[in-house]
Amino acid sequence: MQIDYAYYEVKTSKIQIERDRIAKPSPTAATVAEEPLLEELLQAEAAVRQLRSSVITRTSDARRGEATTIDVTDSMHQQLVLMVEWAKRLVSFSKLPMRTQVGLLRHFSAQHLVMCAAFRSIHLDDAVWLTNETRLHKNSTKVPDVNRVAARIVDQLTVPMRRLQMNEIEYCALKAVAFFDPIAKGVDDSYEEVDLSRQEVLDAFERYVRFVSPLREVPRRLSQLLLLLPPVLGIARDLVEDVQLAKLFGLASIDRLMAELMLPGENHHNEEKMEDGSPLYSPAPSIHVHTSEAPAS
């Protein structure tokens, strides 16, 4: 066998050039070493993913398929519980007064549902992948009440996320930017603290995108990622409207947690408690699992 040394010299040269170009550590490794805040966000995400997985494993594969109304509401409940667990793992959140924490959770709840659904569905072209492993097609006939939201999630968020090749680090950072909103209702007394938390996330996010990301040479990448937030907010408002209508007309079962987080205007008896006096969230909220009609949460 004759070796083409000229070919291998060219290949070696190209390999060296590529090595020089990616001389920096991998995104995750660099984040661990240089951006503790991003690592904290990744750890929080991993923790709630593990919690979700421990519940999903109780779901039979036979029950997975096209989502029903029960699947959608169960998935929303699960995701709100996971949102609380995620927030509790953020140091800056845990230091805030209870009233501020509740304000942030309420303000972010619908956005959280939208962002999680969009990123989780990045491998799909025309459907939303729910937490209970069911699919909500954007033109679903089984759940027509949320078609508008599902279609907007796919077209305005999932498709752009896929086009941008958005990774988990960027997703976690973007979620935290949306979460720490200093102008959220009920956050007035902690405006400076919440704003500082958001600025710290933005700083770490910018450093990652500009200096660490494999796509750091893409022009205006940070801006393109941040521009996903306006549609997130718009779709979240549509989702809240759908929940309000579903509750008003009895189209779906809206549990207490969903009502308190997504429809707070209806329950202002106590900013930190539910209508029955129980805390809005406990140290370890549980995920309700259906064992018959609906897939497990």
TrEMBL record:
PANTHER family: NUCLEAR HORMONE RECEPTOR. SUPFAM superfamilies: Nuclear receptor ligand-binding domain. Keywords: Receptor, Transcription, Transcription regulation. Coiled coil: none annotated. This is NR LBD domain-containing protein. GO terms for molecular function: DNA binding; nuclear steroid receptor activity; zinc ion binding. SMART domains: HOLI (SM00430). The lineage of its organism: Eukaryota, Metazoa, Ecdysozoa, Nematoda, Chromadorea. Residues 269-297 are annotated as: Disordered.
